[in-house]
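Quality-control log, excerpt.
Job 1 of 2 completed; input and output follow.
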Amino acid sequence: MLRIATRNSPLALYQAEFVAAGLRRTHPQLRVELLPMTTEGDRRLSGTLVAVGGKGLFVKELEQALLEGRAEAAVHSMKDVPAQLPAGLCITALLAAEDPRDALVSRHPGGLAELPQGARVGTASLRRRAQLLRLRPDLRPIELRGNLGTRLRRLDAGEIDALILAHAGLARLGLTARISQTFEPELMLPAIAQGVIGIETRVSDEITRGRLSVLHDSGSALRLAAERALGARLGGACTIPVAGHAVVHRPAGSRVSLTGLVAAADGSRCVRGAIEGAAEDAAAVGIQLAERLLESGGREILAALGVRA
């Protein structure tokens, strides 16, 4: 039997069941069960994500289930996974990435440009907030947390005028019809690892790691090597508005292009840059871009946020 730890939200359960279905196809005799649980990040919905402890709160309970032997695997949205994993755990497989872009869901006709002056836009992401204010300084970012369904209900109830969400999450739940605008990376750079599902296991569990290897996508691995190296060098936390988006080029994934961004929380300052390098050196490419961003003013932006880099 293989037990999969997952958050108990519709999107997380969809992602875990997607992994389970893949395992059942490739290992027909294997019994696969989901172990849903509510994480501390799901329970603590008051206050900002930064104030309650960051994105790591969405994975700790799942990782504890792995460490205690109550589960053999945990399924995560990789943008929620901190750069540093607990001792004894590893990311064994990364699924093929879905659309990494951000999307606007609005109660008003049209996209971002058509939102009324001073419109309230819900987001819990400092990265989205900073880029939103650079595009439309008149808008009012509203701290809005909860699972995707909760946020959409609050939008429909009129508490806010629009939401910025991950396109991938909306697509996985069949909600793309609600999208008013999808932001190209040139307009709003995605979160590091956005759109990628990762599977975490115990390092020592070679049987489970072997079973999951058939689900691993090398393109996602190269992309995340660059993006997560960039994020780790810039502080590796959701307490800072950092973005990163890598594209693996063909043939055979020989090159990788990476764009990164560091911004002030209010969008008043922003440093953005891009780099290309050999895909086999993806992590080094991420670190190199991070250094460039720091030297171009990113270090001062981070220092103002209390981050030493």
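Job 2 of 2 completed; input and output follow.
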Amino acid sequence: MERLIWIAALLGLAALIFAALYFVQKKRIERLTERIEDFLVTGKNPLEYSVREDSIAPIHNAAAELENRILLSREQVRDELRRTSTLTADISHQLKTPLASLKLFCELDEGAHMEAQLGQIERMEKLIYSLLRLERLCADGYDFVFEDHEVGQIIREAWESVCPVWPGRTLKIDGSAHIRCDAKWMGEAFLNLLKNACEHTDKGGKIHIRLEMTETTFYATVEDNGGGVPQKDLPHLFERFYRAGDKKENGGAGIGLSIVQEIVRRHHGDIRAENTGKGLKFTISMPVMNLVRT
């Protein structure tokens, strides 16, 4: 009987030791997962190599190696993008001086086509400015500040600057979401999407934005009732300088949607476009690890 008691006690002790070890290992895996997710979001604080002799160390060191390779790859890409951005900036800078001179000469001459000439010069200046911003975005030349923000408020602020330029359009927002983002740049993304929707609709046009959060993803859809774009244009909407359908006839530079795509990518998300029965719809999706749960 006494022997059975000892065996039971030893088994109980072994079970406690196993449970304690399991709990410690589980907590280490959770902390490792949090560190990896934080690195993927911020790109900072990569893992250091572990010198422990246990079953978690190989996983830890494999993750550390992957993070180091990601950092090296990012730096190589940034170097290449910086060279491209510098070249674009130099070309753009060289264009600004002759454009300013042309503008001055047009104003002095006051010819019959002065207004048209000044309009084209102004369009060129806007194009250069937009191109510079896009290239700098692609070259990771702006610091993004990721904080918790309410998306509806960001959209409403963007709409306040859009609606006076395109009167007669209405905006409806369904749903709500708090996301971890850079409010300034996310606001610019929605600003460009709202501009695009207004350009594709006439007076009385309606723009509908839906916000949704699941356990893994944040979604935002921006849909207008302007009839959409030709199907052949859909694959090219995010290409720089591409202007679909009737936008070829307006003053658009064809860079706005490229900027939107780059901003969404900087938030580790994706954006796609499709025609609906009413008009054109853009869908933004972002992984939940970038978000603050509510």
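Post-run check on job 2. The radius of gyration is 27 Å.
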